Amino acid sequence: MPFLKTSSIRRKQTLIIMLTSSVALVLACAAFIAYDWVTFRRELTESVTILADAIANNCAAAIDFNDPKAAEETLAALSADHNIVSACIYSRDGRVFAIYRRDAGSAFVPPTVRSASQEFTRDELHLLRPIQQRSVMTGTIFVASDLKGLSSRLLRYGVIVGAVFLASLLAALLMSIQLQRLVSDPILDLAQAARSVALEKNYSVRAKKQSDDELGQLVDGFNEMLGQIQMRDIALQKAREGLEKRVQERTLELENTHKLLVDASRRGGMAEIATNVLHNVGNALNSVNISTGLIVDSVKKSKASSLAKVVVLLREHEHDLGAFITNDPRGKHVPDHLARLSEHLLAEHANITGELDLLRRNVEHIKEIVAMQQSYATVGGVKEMTDIPSLVEDSLRLNESGLSRHGVEIVREMESVPAINVEKHKILQILVNLIRNAKYACDETGRSDSRLTVRATNGDGRLRITVTDNGIGIPPENLTRIFNFGFTTRKDGHGFGLHSSALAARELGGSLTVHSDGPGHGAAFTLELPCPPPEKPHE
Amino acid sequence: MNTTMFKGQRLSGEGWLAHVMACGVCLSLWCGLCPFSRADGALPEYQVKALFLLNFTKYVDWPPQVFAGSNTPITIGIYGESKLGEALQLVVAGKSVGGRTIVIRQLQSTDDSSQCQILFISESAASRTSGILDKTCALPILTVGEDATLAQHGGIINFVLKNGNVRLEIDLAAARKAGLTISSRLLAVADVVKGKTN
Which candidate from B7, B11, B165 shows the least CB-CB separation from A66? Predict the structure, then answer.
């Protein structure tokens, strides 16, 4: 019943009460009518039986002494009862002895005689009674009574029942309208409160308690629930505010830490580069020093002074120079001496010139290194177009002295890779770190065929620089934590280099990964960087 | 009709023997066995009278001392020759009224009458009526006759023919004298009732 689903509880209650009362009334009325109907039939049967028996008693002698007229006179007494339609007396052999008809003209055919019986037809009661005298069967009497009494009585009853039914329904309706408020009002009040809570999210609303029954308990429970929700709301609000504040604080802390870390890493990287720079500068200065010493020695030991002695000797004999040279024994040696001196000075000059050239080259090298250092020591965050091969060369050069000292063979497998726009000092820092780690890995093995391969490849929008060594390798259990801060396998390591390198790679939008087939099988570190598509050349 | 009749009688629960007997005899005889007849004279007069004699036992009360016990038979005595005696024998066979069976006695001498409760004096014995009644009028005997002089001699019930029908004349005074009580219902169907007290 869709109607029942949508109608209000008030209407439903009224409907239920009315339905219940109606059913109860109908049942009660039906029971009364049925009872009365049965009672009436029984009473009618009884009264007609009594009547029939009385008539029968008075007719016995008439039958016994063959006096139909007397019997008919007796039967005529039945006219006093208007309900008796017809009657008839049978002699003992079943023949009709006397007949009575209420309406003289009516056609009455006496039924065939049977034993005592009573039978209700549609509108008549047919009664057959034996006629006895001194317990001797004398004959049979048949009496037919109409049921007008019953129908009029039922009609009367129907009217009364209908009136009572309507009056009761009206009374029930009036009472239910008033009384159902006892139940529906608190429910509607509660529903109203619930709706206002749902619509306005107003948890300060409270339903009014109107009784101490289950509905009252429901209202109490509802209100308590609202109170709890309100309290929880407040607590939640407070917690959220506190949480926000704490998140902000923690974020700030983290940002600061991050900044510090980045600075530290940058400083670390720069220090590393600086160390390498100084190392190389030192090496170059060594050569400069040696060259300078050699030049100084050479100049000190120069035969130029003996030339001055020859000049003095020649000045003494400037008037007889020819004779002196040809006749004087000392003069005879002068040309030879000058020739030898000239040779010597030429050799000396060549020697010094060579040393000076070396010196110049070393100074040039120092200049380059310093210039490179300056070019990388830019302010963080500045991007510039960077040529990867030259960057690789720079990083190799920064480790040059160490690599050459330990006799590590350097293999370059450089594909043509495009210049990319990055903070290049970060890449340099990473590569220097990787190359130095490779060098240490090779050192540890002590093998003579140490080899370091730098490979640059480009594909899938990624630029990969792989530094591979054939050093001691990395055990699998260390592969996962090798980038962790503080992880190191070296006695004097800090566990900072690879960690900061990985961080730097991530800052560049790339990644740093490691591969090793295990101890003794070397390792390969790959720096992967985002590379713009080649159809967008930057030059 | 006959079937219905049988059915009705059988269901009444009595007299089946009579009906078996009735089936054994011829139709006319069977008709004679029927307890009632219509006023159109379907039954011979003597049979009607025999039935009436039997039916009197249902409407007359005798003083209690008449019967030795509660099931002492009622004796009907018959004076004179008549077909009625035979008819009566057939009618009463197997019947009982108020727990008493009916016994028929053909009387020869007036001395025998004192043992009877009903005494029928047939027309053939009408000449002896006065003698018989003299001896019985003080006894509790229902005297029945078919002679007009019966009442004069103190008889109680007299059969008279009226339009071919057998009717009754009752002398209540004689009945009272004999100490008998006659049911008012019987009086109601009697043609003439003499000696009413009121």
Answer: B165
